[in-house]
Each structure stands twice: as structure tokens, then as C-alpha cells.
Specification:
Elements: H1 4-22, E1 26-30, E2 33-38, H2 41-52, E3 58-61
Antiparallel strand pairs: 1-2, 1-3
């Protein structure tokens, strides 16, 4: 399983092609693969949670600058 940094790198590798075809849409990356393109964040998030649980996965709006989340809302793996 890849981590979030690898999913970000996978997005960056495909960024120009995605911006050509899907500006303003939302994309979901998991295990360094583009899963799908969505019209809204809620649809992307619903599929991500349904298929991949707590992640890691990347949901990003094509053409938007990367967002920095505060530490209080960032994903933290829980170890048993």
C-alpha cells in the first residue's frame, strides 16, 4: 500500500494531462493510481471511504493549488 506522499507524486505525474481534460473536477488517487474523476468532492469522498476506508488516498481538485490541513484534522493511522 502506498502512502499519501506517493499518491501526491502520482497526481503530479499526471497533473498536466488532468488539467487538459478535467479542470475543476475532483480526482481520487489510491495506491498511486487514478481511481476516477468526479464532479464534486462529496462523490469522491463517498467512494473513497466505501472502497478504501480511512485511506490513505488523495482527493484533489484539478487545477487548484494544494491545500494544507491543520494537524488537528490530518489522518493519523491507528495501530492495534
Amino acid at each position: 500500500m502506498s502512502d499519501i506522499k506517493q499518491n501526491i507524486a502520482a497526481y503530479e505525474r499526471q497533473r498536466l494531462a488532468l488539467e487538459d481534460k478535467h479542470v475543476g473536477k475532483w480526482v481520487l488517487f489510491h495506491d498511486e493510481q487514478l481511481v476516477d474523476v468526479f464532479d464534486d468532492f462529496q462523490a469522491a469522498a463517498a467512494l473513497a471511504v466505501e472502497r478504501f476506508g480511512r485511506g490513505p488516498y488523495l482527493i484533489r481538485r484539478v487545477g487548484a493549488p494544494p491545500m494544507t490541513l491543520p494537524a488537528s484534522v490530518m489522518y493519523r493511522p491507528v495501530y492495534a
